[in-house]
Amino acid sequence: MYWQAFRAAPEALIVLDAAGVVRLASKAAETLFRRSTADLVGRRVDELFLADPRPGAGPDRPTTAAALLPDGHQLPVDVRARTLEGDPSGLVVLAVDDQCGPGPSRATLEQRVARLLRLGQEQGELLGDLILNQERERARIAAGVHDDSLQVITAAMLRVQQLRRRLRDPDELEILGRLEESLVNAAERLRRLIFDFRPPKLEDAGLAAATRDLLDGLADDHDLAVQLQNRLTEEPALPTRLLLYRMLQEAVANVGKHADADRCTVVLGEQDGGYLVRVVDDGVGSSAFGEPEPGHLGIVLMRERAALAGGWFRIGSEPGSGTTVTFWVPRGADLQSKGGSP
C-alpha cells in the first residue's frame, strides 16, 4: 500500500499542498522534525522551516534551509522538491536531509522519490476506482432492496392483515400477531439498510439533515446523548457531501462499536477553503489509534479517502479521555470525477 511504503521510506519526506500545508509525513520526517505525524500534518511550511525552501529547491538542485524544532533550535538541512507531473492539485514532495548526519545519496533520493510518486499515482487511481465502484454498488443494492425485497414484505403484511379478519381463535391470532411483528421488524431493518447505503436526506435535505439522522440512530442503538453543531454557511456539492458523509458514517460507527461513550458531538464547519468535520466522544479512548492496526481498517479508509480528495485526517485518543476524529477536504472534492455519478 502506498501509505505504508511512504511511511517506511528511510528519508524524511513531507508532502505539501498548493497552500503549503503538510498533508503526509514519513516516519523519518517525524524523527528529523521531532514531531509526531499528527503534529506535522496540517502545519504550514513556515512553521517547519525558517524560510519556505520550495522556490529554490528542485529534484536536481538541493537548497540549504533551517528546520525549526519544537525546542526552538534550528537544524541545518538540505531540501529537494519534486512536483507530481500532471497533477492539478499542486502537491509537492520535499526530501529533507540533516546536514549534520549521514543521508542517502542524491541519486538514491531521486530514485526513491520518483518511485513513491509513481506508486502514489497508481494507488490514487486504484483507490478512486474502488470508492467509485463501492458507491455504485451501494446505490444498486439500495434500489434493489427498495424495489424488490421491501415490496415483497409489504405485500406479505397486507395478506396477513387479510388473514387476521378471517380468524377468530385467540391462539391463532396470537401466532399471527407475532408473525406481523416479525414482518414489521424485517421491513424496518431493510429501510435502515437502504438508509445506510444511500440516505435520501443527503441529496434532498443536505449534509446536516443526514448527519442528524445518523446521530439519532447512534443514540437509539447505544443509549447515549448526541449533539450536532452545524456551522456550514453553504451546502457542499453532492460529491463532496457524499465523501464527508461516508467518513462521518465510519467515525460515528466507531463511537458505537468501541467508545463506550455517554455523549457524541459532531461539528460541521468550514476552514481554509474547504469543509472541516469533527467527531468527539467522551468514551474510554485508546492509545492504539496513533497508528492503524489490524481491526481498524475503517480508520485507514477514512485517512486514504481524505488524502485522495486532497484533504487530511487526524485522530487523537488517550485511555480514559475520549476520542476526537477530525478531517478536512477542499471545496469541490470529487472522488467520482473519473466515472460520473453512481
Describe the structure.
- By secondary structure, the chain is of the alpha+beta class.
- Helix content is 46%, strand content 20%.
- The protein contains 9 helices and 10 strands.
- The chain has helices at residues 2-7, 27-33, 37-40, 106-164, 170-197, 200-204, 207-222, 238-259, 297-308, and strands at residues 12-16, 22-25, 63-68, 74-83, 92-98, 225-230, 263-271, 274-281, 312-317, 323-330.
- The strands form 2 sheets. Strands 2-1-5-4-3 form a 5-stranded antiparallel β-sheet.
- α7 (207-222) runs parallel beside α8.
- The radius of gyration is 25 Å and the shape is elongated.
- The two termini are 26 Å apart.
- Residues 288-295 and 336-342 have low confidence and may be disordered.
Give me some keywords for this one.
342 residues; alpha+beta; 5-stranded antiparallel beta sheet; 5-stranded mixed beta sheet; 9 helices; elongated; disordered C terminus
Structural class: alpha+beta
Biggest sheet record? 5 strands, antiparallel
Q: What percent of the residues sit in helical stretches (DSSP H or I)?
A: 40-55%
Radius of gyration from the CA trace? 25 Å
Number of strands: 10
Q: Helix and strand string, N-terminal first?
A: HEEHHEEEHHHHEHEEHEE
Record the strand order, biggest sheet. 2-1-5-4-3
Quickly count the helices.
9
Runs in which pLDDT lies below 50 for 5 or more consecutive residues are 288-295, 336-342
Overall form = elongated
Overall mean pLDDT stands at 80
**Terminal Cα span:** 26 Å
* Residue share in β-strands: 15-25%
Summarize the structure.
This protein is α+β, with helices and mostly antiparallel strands and 342 residues long. The protein has helices spanning 2-7, 27-33, 37-40, 106-164, 170-197, 200-204, 207-222, 238-259, 297-308, and strands at residues 12-16, 22-25, 63-68, 74-83, 92-98, 225-230, 263-271, 274-281, 312-317, 323-330.
